[in-house]
């Protein structure tokens, strides 16, 4: 008889930015399959998801991955349900309208690695600043590169967990990094970002770091952190039409406020029109334009308008479930030209 450790992971009810929570369930002779993960419960009154007099919330397993750091361990991503089995109001995953996995997402998760002792990004001296931006992006060498051992270990954990992990690079500011994940299916894309974040946050416990997801933790002439959302559906992947792409981009214009509302807290500090961003008060799109709200990748154009779009507005602390749900909804409202 063997025993497995199932780490149930969920999002709490804090607003506007949810936090990861998790607890371990021991199962005997566990098969390793999602369908054999039982529904579990937790005290919602301790996570702003229920009142003390009726505190039980349910955890519905939706994705499972091997846990690379625990013997007989699994990472179980879950949705939060009310006691009657309906989706909890904090459950953004349940709002995604992509049951056929028509939508593909590639998220670029930026973040700062913070030293827990100094509470500064790696590379920042106490009481001062490192050299200006310019030499940190994709750098190599101890002068400009900070945190590589940590980032490499996180990448290995994600790959060993079976996530569709696509890359890492140091970003424009000192101590700022990025990883990329791609998934066919909007819900799966959200699952994988949250599990990757969980592995990232858990790894900090060993290093004496913490992760800062705030989109503008260092004020001044320093790049903020985003979570660029690259997305496509069958139409974008196959249409071969500039007019179709423009129609889909235009569908985003009248709902700019609705997108910004779910793209992350404090995003106004990042979307200033500087540091490779468009102003939070404006909407624009353009080919290869990193200062636009939505960038049309040059590769998409070169392949005859068959590819994807990149929404550059989501903040690093955004919920990928909410972001994907809003993008899917908007794309589905686009008025596609009849001649396409």
UniProtKB/TrEMBL annotation:
Similarity comment: family membership: Belongs to the glutamine synthetase family.
Oligomer and partners: Homooctamer and homotetramer.
Domain of life, source organism: Bacteria
Domain GS catalytic, chain residue ranges per copy: 87-340
Keywords annotated in UniProt: ATP-binding, Ligase, Nucleotide-binding
Pfam families given in the database record: Gln-synt_C, Gln-synt_N
Annotated protein name in UniProt: Glutamine synthetase II
InterPro entries hit by this protein: Gln_synt_N, Gln_synth_cat_dom, Gln_synth_gly_rich_site, Gln_synth_N_conserv_site, Glutamine_Synthetase
Source species of the chain: Aquimarina litoralis
Domain GS beta-grasp: residue ranges: 4-85
Task of the protein: Catalyzes the ATP-dependent biosynthesis of glutamine from glutamate and ammonia.
Enzymatic reactions: L-glutamate + NH4(+) + ATP = L-glutamine + ADP + phosphate + H(+)
């Amino acid at each position: 008889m063997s025993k497995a450790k199932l780490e149930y992971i969920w999002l709490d009810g804090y607003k506007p930015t949810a936090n990861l929570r998790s607890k371990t369930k021991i199962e005997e002779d566990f098969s390793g399959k999602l369908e054999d993960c039982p529904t579990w419960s937790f005290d919602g009154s301790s996570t702003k998801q229920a009142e003390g007099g009726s505190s039980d919330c349910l955890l519905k397993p939706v994705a499972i991955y091997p846990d690379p750091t625990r013997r007989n361990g699994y990472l179980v991503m879950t949705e939060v349900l009310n006691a009657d089995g309906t989706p909890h109001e904090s459950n953004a995953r349940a709002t995604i309208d992509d049951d056929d996995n028509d939508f593909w997402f590639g998220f670029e998760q930026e973040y700062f690695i913070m030293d827990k002792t100094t509470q500064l990004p790696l590379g920042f001296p106490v009481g001062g600043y490192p050299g200006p931006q310019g030499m940190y992006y994709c750098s190599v060498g101890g002068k400009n590169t900070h945190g590589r051992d940590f980032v490499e270990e996180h990448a290995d954990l994600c790959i060993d967990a079976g996530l569709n992990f696509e890359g890492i690079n140091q970003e424009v500011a000192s101590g700022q990094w990025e990883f990329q994940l791609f998934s066919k299916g909007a819900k799966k894309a959200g699952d994988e970002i949250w599990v990757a974040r969980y592995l990232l946050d858990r790894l900090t416990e060993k290093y004496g770091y913490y992760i800062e997801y705030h989109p503008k933790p260092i004020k001044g002439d320093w790049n903020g952190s985003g979570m660029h959302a690259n997305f496509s559906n069958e139409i974008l992947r196959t249409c071969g039409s500039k007019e179709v792409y423009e129609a889909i981009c235009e569908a985003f214009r009248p709902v700019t406020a609705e997108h910004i509302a779910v793209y992350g807290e404090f995003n106004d500090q990042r979307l200033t029109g500087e540091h490779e961003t468009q102003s939070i008060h404006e909407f624009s799109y353009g080919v290869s334009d990193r200062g636009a709200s939505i960038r049309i990748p040059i590769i998409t154009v070169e392949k005859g308008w068959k590819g994807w779009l990149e929404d550059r507005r989501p903040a690093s602390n955004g919920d990928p479930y909410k972001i994907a749900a809003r993008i899917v909804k908007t794309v589905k409202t686009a008025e596609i030209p009849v001649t396409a």
